[in-house]
């Protein structure tokens, strides 16, 4: 039997702001922290719009005026919880079949009035099937762990 | 399996292998660790199903396991680890004023 953890990834961090602010930056300011190399658009993405309700979409707005809706909002519970789908295949292109998409749950929990623990779970990765290597190729330097090293130094 | 990537040096070894097939000496040349240490890390990565090795002449060449879910997980793990670090920095940055200026950020000593 497959355990849940074998098809998911959990990453945590702690930020020096209250949950309300953490939730806001995560959902309203995605373009301020999202890796600019990880987009489906050809042109640079200038804004990542999160439609703030269940059933809403996450829409990338590129500098050439094109848009790309690459995710569905599955849970919208500010400031505690946000769940969205990953409608991207392993070649880093839109995946139209929901049964072949994974999902990301993010929880924001106050550990003190000014600190928030953020736990991100990317689950159902097995739904993408095999062929991750194309993904790594498609996004070029996706393996750089510099930020990780800096964060853990 | 991702515990195999919990060690920063081992992650660096894995990153190097992910960049292209390579031998132990090539990995060791790019890292401040000994060949035997690299070999140890490779053994753990191999046991976790993240890399596989083949004999090429007298050398043993390592590459990532292309079909392994573990490797997709490693990729996603690296992506989110990096993104959450950037997110944390963005969240803790004071709210920017509406207009941008050309003033460079305050410099810190190296």
Q: Give the oligomer, counting copies of the same chain as homo and different chains as hetero.
A: heterodimer
Please state roughly what percent of the residues of chain A sit in beta strands, choosing from under 5%, 5-15%, 15-25%, 25-35%, 35-45% or over 45%: 35-45%
- Helix and strand composition category of chain B: alpha+beta
Structural class of chain A: alpha+beta
Number of helices of chain B: 4
Q: Report the β-strand fraction of chain B as a percent range.
A: 5-15%
Write down the CATH class of chain A. Answer: Alpha Beta
Structure, described:
The complex is a heterodimer of chains A (153) and B (110). Chain A has 3 helices and 7 strands, in the order E-H-E-E-E-E-E-E-H-H. Chain A is of the alpha+beta class and 153 residues long. The longest helix of chain A has 10 residues. The termini of chain A are far apart. The C terminus of chain A is likely disordered. In chain B, strands 1-3-2 form a 3-stranded antiparallel β-sheet. The longest helix of chain B is centred in the last third of the chain and has 24 residues. Chain B is elongated. The interface between A and B is large, with 44 and 34 residues. Chain A: Belongs to the AHA1 family.
Would you spell out the secondary-structure blueprint of this structure?
The complex is a heterodimer of chains A (153) and B (110).
Chain A: E1 9-15, H1 19-28, E2 45-50, E3 57-62, E4 67-77, E5 81-86, E6 102-112, E7 115-123, H2 132-138, H3 146-152
Antiparallel strand pairs in A: 1-7, 2-3, 3-4, 4-5, 5-6, 6-7
Chain B: H1 8-19, E1 22-23, H2 24-29, H3 35-47, E2 51-56, E3 59-64, H4 69-92
Antiparallel strand pairs in B: 1-3, 2-3
Helix pairs in contact in B: 1-3
């Amino acid at each position: 039997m497959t355990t849940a953890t074998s098809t998911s990834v959990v990453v945590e961090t702690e930020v020096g702001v209250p949950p309300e602010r953490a939730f806001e930056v995560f959902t309203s300011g995605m373009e301020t922290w999202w890796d600019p190399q990880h987009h489906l658009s050809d042109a640079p993405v200038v804004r990542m719009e999160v439609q703030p309700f269940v059933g809403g979409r996450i829409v990338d707005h590129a500098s050439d005026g094109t848009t790309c809706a690459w995710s569905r909002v599955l849970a919208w519970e500010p400031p505690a919880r946000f769940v969205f789908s990953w409608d991207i295949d392993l070649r880093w292109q839109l995946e139209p079949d929901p049964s072949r998409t994974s999902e990301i749950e993010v929880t924001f929990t106050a550990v003190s009035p000014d600190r928030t623990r953020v736990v991100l779970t990317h689950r159902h990765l097995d739904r993408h099937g095999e062929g991750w290597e194309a993904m790594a190729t498609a996004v070029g330097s996706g393996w750089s762990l510099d930020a990780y090293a800096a964060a853990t130094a | 399996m991702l515990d195999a990537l919990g060690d920063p040096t081992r992650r660096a070894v894995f990153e190097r292998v992910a960049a292209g097939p390579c031998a132990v000496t090539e990995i060791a040349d790019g890292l401040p660790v000994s060949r035997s240490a690299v070999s140890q890390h490779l053994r753990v990565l191999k046991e976790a199903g993240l890399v596989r090795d083949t004999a090429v002449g007298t050398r043993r060449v390592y590459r990532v396991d292309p079909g392994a879910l573990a490797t997709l997980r490693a990729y996603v793990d690296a992506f989110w680890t990096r993104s959450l670090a950037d997110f944390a920095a963005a969240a803790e940055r004071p709210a920017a004023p509406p207009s941008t200026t050309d003033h460079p950020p305050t410099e810190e000593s190296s």
